[in-house]
Amino acid sequence: MQRRSFLKTVSAAGLSAGVTPVWGIPSAPNQQDSGSCDAKQASPETILLKDYRPKSLHKVPITQVPKAKFPIVDMHSHAYAKTPAEIAEWVKNMDEVGIEKTILLTETSGQDFIDVQQKFSGYPGRFEIWCGFDYTGYDQPGFGPQAVKALEACHRLGTGGVGELHDKGKGLVNEKVKAFGMHPDDARMDSLFDRCGQLSLPVNIHVADPIWMYEPMDHTNDGLMNAFHWRLDNRPDIVKLSGMIDILERTVKKHSNTTFICCHFANLDYDLARLGQVLERHPNLYADISARYAETAPVPRFAAKFYEKYANRLVYGTDMGFDKSMYRTTFRILETSDEHFYEHDLFGYHWALNGFGLPDEVLRKVYRTNAQKILSSRGSRVHA
Ligand SMILES: [Zn+2]
């Protein structure tokens, strides 16, 4: 699937409001041409940053990774495929690139959850469907028991976990209800998170957004090209990134019998040392690496050290559709030591990427073993 059709799919799935895609601003149809349309007049004075598409000229190794080195459980994806043909294509792609199983974070409950389950039921064991919370009535006295009942219903149907919960600073939101003002550490959420622990349902949670989205949108913003589209610097009414990490920590600490997976490195991809401290404080917390490849690949040595130190706490994820080239780009970043390459079609930033060259024992854990540990802790009840 091409990038443009992927973006279309994402928006058709209605995910754009809650999820944080980091592939950035959709290209103009002839964007590729616009940078080079009039070579004579092109100059640093006239080339727009949005059209800047540098090509690497370094004669350095370029490694193709058609298939992952070890089988993978993709812990962060969504129900992008809409038709039986698309689902079949997805499974074929998974087979070709080495994805054994994909977790679909649906954020749904009730009939919507059943619908997704049925849609993907033709491939037992290849997909796992996770539900969401029902925030209906969150602002009414007595919120809780009904939401727990909805969760229990999904549990009986065989949900594998809960997610992706979203709080970008204003409160927990999903497609149906914007629970503004209710953050994950709110007392109103206690019974839900505790029930997840009792039912052995892991919770995937998205807090905040990448740091560049909070910074002034000016010539100093390193991530400007992607950040502008998802900007939060003009939102004085939200809890900022650091405050959201505090909220995450209070939540994870309060519900110590519940397993949490903070997705996208908890948006601490720019401050992995802090994420390391957070992980050390909370043994019931994992981080998924989805949709933060572009943010970490510019700092490959620091990132690789982080992967090695916290290899037991990180799980693979994508969150970027199901195109084969997308999977292969993630393998190239994780597995190879390639340097200074670009993936303009996949990521909205204009940063050059570098591989981490992770050792086999780290890859095995991040690709599969840690995920298996989380999934197997639920017992044999769960089915796709
Ligand atoms: Zn996601």
What are its keywords?
disordered N terminus; alpha/beta; binds zinc ion; three-stranded parallel sheet; globular; single chain; 384 residues; 11% strand; TIM Barrel; 10 strands
CATH class assignment of the domain at 1-20 and 69-225 and 251-290 and 315-348: Alpha Beta
Distance between the termini: 25 Å
Number of strands: 10
Shape descriptor = globular
Number of helices: 13
Indicate the structural class: alpha/beta
**Uncertain spans:** 1-37
How much strand content do the residues show? 5-15%
Bound molecules: zinc ion
Helix proportion of residues, in percent? 25-40%
**Could you give a short account of the major beta sheet?**
7 strands, mixed
Folded structure, characterized:
By secondary structure, the chain is of the alpha/beta class. It has a domain at 1-20 and 69-225 and 251-290 and 315-348: TIM Barrel (Alpha-Beta Barrel). It is 34% helix and 11% strand. The protein is built from 13 helices and 10 strands. It has helices at 3-12, 31-34, 84-97, 110-119, 145-157, 190-198, 224-227, 241-254, 272-281, 293-296, 300-309, 324-335, 360-376; strands spanning 72-77, 99-105, 127-130, 162-167, 171-173, 178-180, 203-207, 260-262, 285-288, 314-315. It has a 7-stranded mixed β-sheet. Helix 3 links the parallel strand 1 (72-77) and strand 2. Helix 5 packs parallel to helix 6 (190-198). The longest helix has 17 residues, at 360-376. The chain is globular, with a radius of gyration of 20 Å. It starts with a helix and ends in an 8-residue tail after the last helix. The relative contact order is 0.16. Zinc ion (ZN) is lined by residues 19, 76, 78, 105, 164, 319.
